[in-house]
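Onboarding guide, step 5: your first structure request.
Type a short instruction followed by the sequence, for example:

Predict the 3D structure of this protein.
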Amino acid sequence: MNYWLVKSEPFKYSWDDFVKEGKSVWDGVRNYQARNNMKAMKKGDWVFFYHSNEGMEVVGLAEVLTEFYQDPTTEDPRWVVVELIPKQKLEKTVSLKTMKADDRLQSLALIKQSRLSVTPVLKAEFDIILSLAQ
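The system replies with structure tokens like these:
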């Protein structure tokens, strides 16, 4: 199993929007590294849902429902999507400030590659972030 983090600006698509829909096609990614991360996602992988720009915090936990396929919003074959389903809202959100202050998370891709919208999360990092959410 792998672990991931996806970012969304809450004024465009929030955790609450995601929960209302019950699942989401994660589309519109136009960065090669983020796309490659999506191609590596497997059904059943866990995904942190992160509110970017506004809030800047991990707010929920999702699961990969469907592995990558052609992005239906473009005819360009280079771009793909995955389908995600919401699993649970975190008891307590985990802010970027909190993660940056934690020495154990200094290698977290969200911190090292802050512009990427889809990043991998190591199992140890995943567990630490979950513990910070309690």
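Each response can be followed by summary notes, for example: The helical segments are 15-21, 32-40, 96-101, 109-112, 123-132.
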